[in-house]
Amino acid sequence: MNRPLTALFAAFEASLVVAIGIVIPLAPLTVLWGAQFGFAGDWTTFWRASVDIWLLGHGADVRMTLDPTVAATLGLAGADAAFPVTIAILGFGGLTLLLGVRAGRRVSETRFRLLGELVAVGTFAGLSTLATLSVLHPFARPSIVQGILLPTAVFGVGILIGSLRTQRAAGDDSGSSIRDWVNDWHPTVRSVVEVGLRGGVAAVAAVIAVASLAVAVLLAANYAGIVALYESLHSEVLGGIALTGAQLAFLPNVVIWAASWFVGPGFAIGAGSAVSPLGTTLGPLPVIPMLGALPAGDLAYGFLGLLVPIVAGFLAGALLRPRLFRTDWRSSLAAGASIGVVAGVLLGLLAWFSSGAAGPGRLAVVGPDPLAVGLWAALEVGIAATIGLFAASHLKSPVAEKAERADR
């Protein structure tokens, strides 16, 4: 494949990713426009809504101004003034990342890999710019800078991951300088860093897995209440499908909120509210069917949820103990602390991505507190991982055994 064809192929891949992300909300809204509104009204309203949703999914802020009649109906303080919506609908960002990985793998298989990657990212940035500029409206105005940069950054990360995976599979040693630099570290330091990264990521993955299972169980157990909320909206079939699609896109946020609940700080749905293992305090909520699965009141054994990150940290430390070069107490403490720091940073970032302002008034505070989640996760996972490392002290790594034999 020559240079022009590589560039054209990369541009097509990037265009496809943008098109899929915008069409997902646009398709059901267009069907709704035709079937329920009889093609009356301006279709560009649905285009603007779809692009705004796509931009929100990548973290771009949208400044909203409600119609006075709608604002009065909501009954929320501040609804009659312009307000920012900053909460990210993570389903769209995750889709762009996955499609970016796929595009990166396909582009990196061409002869002119670097050219293809630059064209793909540049094309995505150009289309993101056009999409952002096409939806500027007094009632819903996205941030132009964020609308251009944030979706492009997510796609660029996906391109990078896909390219690196392809190079590694092909045995490309272009990144050997970094590996050589890491290999020059002292074996003890290198093993502590490795255990910290592996253990922190594993502990976070375990907490997220348990949180996903908990969300699924709550949705199934509160099915009747969720259906009742659907019926109260009188959205009919097409409106119900569109609403369900929006909730599915928001599901990654809910899973991260559940993980924050297990860590301890929990999350808020409006200023002054709290959903945590110690109890649930909620004020007026928007009529969103998925919220019908929220636990109500004080949970008698809710504090047991705190065992999830503790057990995850303990298992991570115990299972990774054999990877330590030295099994002395200093290495164990350093490895346990590094596991806690990595877990805290990751869960704190996830909490930050999943929170923000979702509306006017009290809805300006929605989601977990990133700092609290990160600090509690680092403390719980770090202490538990250190205990796990000491508990598995009888397990010696093959590297450590060779070092001890050499010392003799």
Automatic annotation (TrEMBL):
Entry keyword annotation includes Membrane: yes
Keyword flag Cell wall biogenesis/degradation: no
Keyword field: Membrane, Transmembrane, Transmembrane helix
Transmembrane segments: 81-102, 114-137, 143-164, 200-225, 237-259, 266-287, 299-320, 332-353, 373-392
Full protein name: Uncharacterized protein
Pfam families: DUF6350
Superkingdom assignment: Bacteria
